[in-house]
Design goal:
There is one protein chain. With 352 residues, the chain is an alpha/beta fold. The chain has helices at residues 93-96, 108-117, 134-144, 161-170, 184-191, 197-208, 227-240, 266-278; strands at 3-4, 8-10, 16-18, 26-27, 38-41, 44-47, 52-53, 55-60, 74-79, 104-105, 122-125, 150-155, 173-179, 212-219, 247-251, 284-287, 297-298, 305-310, 313-317, 348-349. The protein has eight helices and 20 strands. A hairpin with a 2-residue loop joins strand 5 and strand 6. The structure holds iron/sulfur cluster.
């Protein structure tokens, strides 16, 4: 569905500048932005994919991944067309790089009702970049907060400053996905990102505004696996956000235009883990390696595993109701509460 966009500003020469991401495309009538879903039509700036979703699932929150926020909860997860980046390794490229809006329309009211009917505790805008359809998330927020649902984005963090203010108001949590250790060269070459600085500005702003933030870093073998860059990321997190923000190093699987690379060796991920721990981060994880011991949460005080996971499932819980370690009493910064339900029921599609 097409709506008039609230995230354009007219330029002195009669064109329109979009500020739904940090790319800042300037368009004249008839042109479409880099993401493929924002355009100027008949002199009006528009959003083309409002509420049209082609992926609608109920996922465990651990899949986002968010592991320090309402553990065990279910999230209605939706994705649509387009992206502000063009990652050559994208695993959802059929959505993100498609330039034709396809899917089923859900009004904000319908989406909230669907989340409630599905037994979800929250809604996640994910699978493709959600900042590019921020108007829809804002409209859902007005309804979802009254129903007690949380809202979360899985995002590249490439937001404009103005948009960051909206995000800080509407989001309860965000997973910000770095790629290739956020190396400037990697992002320019493989993701068409002109400048990574807005990512870090967004993370800092969201965190300082009280949004729960977890950071992932997709470790791409050979071209995006520098330990020195990983050290810089970990140091930046500690110095700017503190030592309690979770950092997940994710295993890369070959996809899209980068099928020529292997999966990330587990040892490379473990080396990244150790570098981040050396830099003083308390909660570092390895993702996409089910069964690895670094999927677990360890108590920073006594070192015992307080939350054991297998993939997206919690298989052991050793925290009390106040999130204190059962072994030593140390309080962990886990927000919300543990949601216990049948995990096998939560992992299904609502579209197909
Ligand atoms: S969201 Fe970003 S990529 Fe899309 S039109 Fe706006 S500035 Fe361009």
């Amino acid at each position: 569905m097409m709506i008039r966009s609230r995230y354009f500003r007219e330029t002195p020469d009669g064109r329109f500048r979009c500020f739904a991401c940090a790319r800042g495309c300037v368009m004249k009538d008839g042109q479409v932005g880099f993401c493929g879903v924002r355009a100027v039509k008949d002199g009006t700036p528009v959003l083309l994919n409002y509420g049209v979703f082609d992926a609608v699932h109920v996922d465990p929150i651990e899949k986002k991944p968010l592991v320090h926020f309402n553990p065990g909860s279910s999230v209605l997860s939706v994705g649509t067309t387009g992206c502000s980046w063009a990652c050559a390794f994208c695993q959802n490229y059929d959505l993100s790089q498609r330039r034709k809006v396809e899917g089923r329309y859900f009004s904000p009211e319908e989406l909230v009702q669907l989340a409630i009917r599905a037994g979800a505790e929250g809604i996640a805008f994910t699978y493709n970049e959600p900042t590019i359809y921020i108007e829809y998330a804002e409209d859902v927020y007005r309804l979802s907060r009254d129903q007690g649902l949380f809202l979360t984005f899985v995002t590249n963090g490439f937001a404009s400053e103005e948009e960051s203010r909206t995000l800080s108001r509407v989001l309860n949590a965000a997973t910000v996905d770095l790629k290739g250790n956020a190396s400037r060269e990697f992002l320019r070459k493989y993701s068409a990102v002109p400048d990574p600085e807005p990512i870090f500005r967004t993370i800092k702003y969201l965190h300082s505004s009280g949004v729960h933030v977890e950071i992932t870093d997709l470790v791409v073998p050979r071209v995006g696996d520098s330990l020195e860059e990983a050290r810089s990321v970990a140091r930046w997190i500690r110095e700017n956000l503190g030592d309690e923000v979770p950092l997940h190093f994710l295993r890369f699987h070959p996809d899209y235009k980068m099928n020529w690379l292997p999966v990330t060796p587990v040892k490379t991920l473990e080396d990244h883990y150790r570098v981040a721990k050396d830099e003083g981060l308390k909660y570092v994880y390895i993702g996409n390696v089910p069964g690895h011991p670094y999927e677990h949460t360890y108590c920073p005080s006594c070192g015992r595993p307080v939350i054991k996971r297998y993939g997206f499932d919690i298989i052991e819980w050793n925290l009390d109701d106040e999130m204190r370690c059962r072994f030593c009493g140390y309080r962990l910064p886990i927000k919300g509460k543990l949601h216990v339900k049948g995990f096998e029921d939560r992992f299904f599609s609502l579209l197909y």
